[in-house]
Design brief:
184 residues, five-stranded parallel sheet, alpha/beta, 9 helices
Length: 184
Amino acid sequence: MRAEEDPLGPSPAWTVFDQRASIYDAWYDTPEGAALFAAEVETLRPLLAGLPRPWLEAGAGSGRFIAALGAQVGVDPARAPLAIAARLGVAAVQAVAERLPVRAASCGAVLFVVALSFVADPMAALREARRVLAPRGAVIIGEVPASSPMGKRYRAMGAAGPPFYHQARFFTPEALAGLLAASG
């Protein structure tokens, strides 16, 4: 199936994850990857405390974060990472963040863990997160700020051509706050 025939639509930002899922996922097993993963999980975990369930991760990829954080379901447009997630026992569905396959007001948390930078339409994804959010729920976003040392590193890597960050869009905290406010 060609990208333009894909029912999820073409998206160069996520197709690289479909093509190189094992390579991307293996990075989490490196010393740097394992350390950053642990730090990210410990940063996000307290934000979920007390939120009603179920929790959904948009852009769940290979399922590492959803498994570590205890979310109930994940969505990702790329098929290959979902196969890795299934081996971890993660319930994941192929879908884009802009069209989540769940009922309105049904999720206690919607997580975007280093995922909003890769969606085709971040505003639509945030509006969709708002649609599925239950009362007393929260949208949790873990992103690499554009101006941070890691953001600068990833942007430089993307400009140099490595495939994972080539299509990524990194946000400043102010731009992300603006998107959140505009999306409700």
